[in-house]
Amino acid sequence: MKLLTLLFLVFTTFALAQDPKEMPHANAMSVELSRYIAKDIFELNGVPFMKPLVQAINATANSRFFSSAYVPTKVEKAYFRVSLNGMAGLVRDDMKTYSPQLPQEEYQDSNALKFVSLGLVNGTFGVVKLDTANLVHYLFKTLLYDGINGAVDKNGKPTIDIRTLKTPERAATILGSQEAFFPLNGDTLVRIASNRIDILNSKVPGVKVVSQALQDTINNILRKLPSRITLPPGGNFSSLIAGVPQIEIGSYYGTELLIRFIPPVDMGTSIGKFSFYGLGLKHNLSQYFEDPSFNMALQAVYQATSLTNQVGATNSQLQADAKIINLNLHASKKIKDWFDVYCGFSFENVTIESKFTYKLMQETQLLLGMLESNPRWILSKDDPNYIAPPAVIDPSPGYPGDKVVQVSSLTLKDNNYKLVFGLHKEIGNFGISIDANISKFNILTSGIYYRF
Known about the structure:
Structural class: alpha+beta
Low-confidence stretches: 1-17
């Protein structure tokens, strides 16, 4: 009974921001374990979920820096080129899905016993201290491992069929559109847990690490978990289109300054509040050669973006800040008075630091009994009687919803190498360009400028 009390105290300590008395229809300890699971799944799948978008951002943002390598060595007056540039790319099918993972871990006695302190208790050797919350969390991850890969008893004999807990082979990335969920069968988890606890209790002779009372509590927690954990469905993008204004100022000893800037703008619910700036320098390398047959330049550009958005029915908050670097070597040659041809090679890098502040998904809250539900909302999605719940369900007496805010951070990085081939034509003070960018995310770009 002492262990049962300790388990309750540890779990409810984490949930003090939400009094269990507010949730008479939900099991407080199952709710708390669900929060652990949600955080684990977010941090385990967040990078592959976002990776295709990061690659696309890297390729798209690092474009339209040049259309000619010519930079005059000396000018009497500074010149300005004001341009508007567009980028467009098709999202490939392989960018729309990834292989999702559950937070699973193969059981090891040494890892389980890390949460147990043994010694003399009233003259009898036994459990002195038990880190119950972390032990239950660890055991849960091993249960998932056993359910996915096949469980064995303390004698090493199989007890659960392989892949009892089937995980979806593919799920949607942020660019895709596909429903996927992890099934959680409480009775199956209890069966696996009984085998696991038998093994743990057999490791310390004469000591029952997990008492029957604690085991009963663990079983109750597992049975009250939601029957499924749905993964984000993605945004269903078939293409990505972007545009950016740009100013180029020259020239000082064959060097041009490039400036890009978008002030903080609210771009709607799909994107959020977005701001952007970029600074670059382009230097004429041809000036160091006598009578070069073509122009060549070296360019370096640094860009930064900030994005703040509110996501979903639970009003989750996303804050993402990106740093983008481009180094490119490019060349151009004028073909009579017709047009210029140009090409370039770029190294590109993007690093995105994101912080996501969130609560349990609305569907998970329904399945846990934290929100008042229509019985048809929480059926299996394969059930013909299932109907989708409303996009937003308001709290009601006895069903307050999730009030505990969790925070997860992700660092997303991508390196890209790009080849650029294009055509450029000047007509008076105007210029127009079009080019193909070949890399991990292929795009077409075009730009038009006015020079004064």
